[in-house]
Amino acid sequence: MNAPLTTATAELEQLLARLDPGAGLAERHLWLLDLTGWVRGDQASVPAALDRVQAFIDAVDARPELQSRLQAWWQVLVETVDITTLLADFGFAPRNAMVSEMAARLRHKLLPGSPETLDASELFSLALPTAFDAQWLAAVPEPQLNRLVRLLAGPDNQGLQWKTALLDAITYCAGQILSTGFAPDLRLRMSEQARESQPFHALIRDVESLRVEVLHGLRTPERLDEAAQRLRERLEACRAAAATVYQHFEDSGISVGLVFRVRQLRERILRVRALLDCVLSPTLALSAAQLLAQLVKVGQERRSLRALLRANSSLLAAKVAERSAETGEHYITRTPAEYRAMVGKAAGGGAVMAFTTLVKFGLYALALSAFWGGFLAGVNYALSFVLIQLLHFTVATKQPAMTAPAMAAKLKELDSDSAVQSFVDEVTHLVRSQVAAVLGNVLVVYPAALLLALGLASVLGAPFLSEDKALHVLDSLHLLGPSVLFAAFTGVLLFASSIVAGWTENWFVLHRLDSALRYNPRITHWLGAQRAARWAGFLRDNISGFAANISLGFMLGLTPAVAGFFGLGLDVRHVTLSSGQLGAATASLGLQGLQTPAFWWAALTLPLLGALNVAVSFVLAFRLALRAQNVSGVDRSRIYRAIRSRLRSAPLSFFWPVRA
Questions:
Q1: DSSP string over 152-210
Q2: Which of 34, 155, 201, 371 is the most exposed place for a label (fewest CB within 10 A)?
Q3: Pseudo-torsion of CA 185, 187, 192, 194, nearest 10°?
Q4: Cβ–Cβ < 8 Å for 147, 61
Q5: Burial class (CB in 10 A: 0-12, 13-18, 19+), 519
Q6: What is the rounded distance in angstroms from the CA atom of residue 507 to the CA atom of residue 513?
Q7: pLDDT band at 528, cuts 50/70/90?
Q8: Residue 22: is its pLDDT beyond 60?
Q9: pLDDT digit string (tens) for 357-406?
Q10: How far apart are CA 275 and CA 166, in angstroms?
Q11: Top-confidence residue, 199 or 510
């Protein structure tokens, strides 16, 4: 029963025997790592760790010679490593750049650290690397902490050295805050009122006033409290001024790098507040332990690449979702007239895609390499999608990634049963719009591709596709083959194209390219003022669509080639393109082809392709929009019940508009 305790005691004796203040840098720091590892133990119990801390204190306190060695070791440690950098800089990026911080985190993950270091932050990470360290540090009682401080620093030390380090850290953080606050890209995006109030100008003066009040023994407590309150108010004014940058983001696009800098500034302000509370605390040792425990948590967060990307890209995701929501509203039909218009637009898109399908088959005749064949296929798709956009037609599968954010935006308003029913109405409108678009595409692209292939066959005097190629088309679309999985993967590509579209539009707005096109002297000299203005307005209205269409076209064309290079065997199955391919294959096989099982297996696959293209891209976009808009606490069971009720009471409303 006492075996674990006996083992821990024996390990402690070995540790204490190795304590040597005159050892080399690496050996001294290794001893610290071994000590904190011994306190941590198996990380099963915080009380067990506290018992080990108490055992260490009792063992040192009972031996004056050991106590002298420990104090000498501690003195060498604090003179060798600068604790100020730990207090001020730990957890922050060395440079205010998102890319450099990502590289630093990746380096920390992949490369081992060395205890032979003068960097207090690196030594701190090695000594206290786990979340359990934060737990036992925060749980150490004040009497135990006071005894530990006396053992380390001696009875004559009253915390002056620690307070000086805290004040130095506050000064260092204030300098970083001042530097960021005066950065041109941040300052230009603050509100005019924030710039006029000049909150950053007097920050260093307030910090120096606090230092004087803390270190000057003749000052009164009232003056110290006034200096601390002035600094707190100054920090709040700096935080509020930096927060006005977000208002600029709403109107002028989001820069992930600038978001990162604003977040770093906010975290610096919070660090100064924590350091200030520690300086003013009447229980200095307890506050110091709590601060170190918080730094351990900061170290845990700083190791996470996912946390960095999630924290600094959430606003961009919100803006992408918002811009997609604005576009997606145009794809939702609510009246019979809008429904018929959607079918007509989809029919036009299907007609264009029939030509796209035949051009794709024509590229096969060039016998190009995999990459160049995929590249030209991507060019074919991209040009077709852009033409459909300019002709104001539509491709059904491009809609869900745009309509999902529009639907998610309405989830914020579910505060009553009538709001739930209104949301279900929107769901029916959305599903009905998708059905109309898919039908318009498929019912036109199949006969159009069939007629075009027959027309080319009559001109060429031979079938447009060879029999082997036509049979290969049927085989590739077989219901029991991998087409269903490929259709789901294509849904991912459709979603990815919407992300590219949102990001591109945000980039276009952020860099004010529409204004540059409209007013840049060199551009207006070549184009003329009126034409430049028309081009600026045209690109502002269509840049998102161009980005979505071009990126989707190249993803559909190049993905099979790239996947084949890596031996992945991935392919794409776009319902409109697949329907056109089936039409071209039918033209080559003739009426006898309609009598083969392979044709009907392929025909049965088409509805599944459309459903998976639509569903996967919609679900991915919907989940992104929910996170981006911070939609939480929604009673989704009410929504699901209401949708099921609508399916039972009016199933046709999901496929055909109901007359008012």
A1: HH-TT--SHHHHHHHHHHHHHHHHHHHHHHT-HHHHTTS-HHHHHH-TTTTHHHHHHHH
A2: 155
A3: 150
A4: yes
A5: middle
A6: 9
A7: very high
A8: yes
A9: 999 999 988 888 989 999 999 999 999 999 999 999 988 776 655 665 66
A10: 6
A11: 199
CA-CA distance, 610 to 617, in Å (whole number)? Answer: 11
Average pLDDT over residues 34-47: 92
- Return the number of other C-beta atoms located less than 10 Å from residue 293's C-beta: 19
CA–CA gap between residue 146 and residue 528 (Å, rounded): 78
- The residues, ordered by sequence, that sit 6+ positions from 331 with a Cβ below 8 Å of its Cβ are 342, 394, 399, 402, 403, 433, 437
The structure's pTM equals: 0.74
Q: How distant, in Å, are the alpha carbons of 503, 516, 542 from that of 508? A: 9, 10, 11
Asked whether 262 and 238 are in contact (CB, 8 A), the reply is no
Nearest C-alpha neighbor of 280 from the set 334, 338, 229, 340 = 229
Q: Is the pLDDT of residue 157 over 60?
A: no
Which has the closest alpha carbon to 444: 497, 389, 396, 382? Answer: 396
CB-based burial of residue 37 (10 Å sphere; 0-12 exposed, 13-18 middle, 19+ buried)? middle
**pLDDT reported for residue 521:** 93
Angle at 456 between CA 453 and CA 459, to 5 degrees: 155
Average pLDDT for residues 439-444, to the nearest whole number? Answer: 93
Least confident of 43-47, 323-327, 614-618: 323-327
Listed residue (83, 86, 503) closest to 317, CA to CA: 503
Encoded tokens for 291:
């601060």
Q: What is the pLDDT of residues 396-426, one digit of tens each?
A: 776 655 665 666 666 666 667 777 788 788 7
Task: Extract the tokens encoding 263.
Answer: 């977040």
Specify the higher pLDDT residue, 325 or 305: 305
Whose structure tokens read 């509020």?
240
| 404-416 CB burial, b ≥16 within 10 A, e <16 | bbbbbbebeebee
**What phi and psi values does residue 101 have, to the nearest 5 degrees?**
-70, -40
CA 239 centroid distance within chain: 23
Q: pLDDT at position 1, please?
A: 41
Which residues, other chains included, contact 243 with Cβ-Cβ below 8 Å and sequence gap of 6+?
262, 266
Whether residue 506 contacts residue 316, with contact meaning beta carbons closer than 8 Å, is answered with yes
pLDDT of residue 598: 93
∠ CA 91-97-102 to the nearest 5 degrees?
Answer: 65
Whole-number percent of the chain with pLDDT over 70: 88
139: CB partners within 8 A, 6+ apart: 46, 50
Tokens at 158, concatenated:
């009253």
